[in-house]
Amino acid sequence: ISSKVEFTNVKCTSLDTTFCEYEYCFIKPINRSYKYVSFKVNMFKVPVTKIKINFALYKRFNGYRPFLYNLTVDSCRFLKNPSANPIANFFYGLIKNYSNLDHTCPYDHDVIIEKLPVDHINNQFTKVLPFPKGEYMIDSYWMAYDISRARLSVYGTVS
Q1: Distance CA 91, CA 28 (A)
Q2: How many angstroms separate the Cα of 114 from the Cα of each of 77, 89, 129?
Q3: What is the pLDDT of residues 48-94, one digit of tens each?
Q4: Distance between CA 151 and CA 54 in Å, rounded?
């Protein structure tokens, strides 16, 4: 029995355009079996020294309903010792090799996730921590100084 993950949509919303704004945000299909996600957030007020991320996993049951995880992480503290929070570390493992979010605070640059392939997500969601079949959404709010600044929602299916 094998499962397969596929990206279906990505939605990027800047909640405070004076602080940050998405330059691009898309899913790019290369062929039938290879897709990747990329986005870039331009930061207008740097350096940022206090960052939190709230991420939640939702599964579709007559609309998207919370499924397993809803977690808020102090990113500056987490990146000093990622293994201290295994759930956050699992989700961080999804993006760390494809992003520039690889150091502790302060952040004095734009945030980029570039060419995050579905194959990597497929491995994490089917081999490392198997998930049941269905439609999912990872919804995240990115906060600076305890104010929500951006929202990123990635939709996919496990079949």
Answers
A1: 21
A2: 24, 19, 23
A3: 999 999 999 999 998 889 888 899 999 999 999 988 899 889 888 88
A4: 9
Neighbour order of strands in the sheet with 111-117: 20-29, 35-43, 111-117
**Tens of pLDDT, residues 13-60:** 999 999 999 999 999 998 887 889 999 999 999 999 999 999 999 999
Q: Which two tokens stand for residue 64?
A: 């998207």
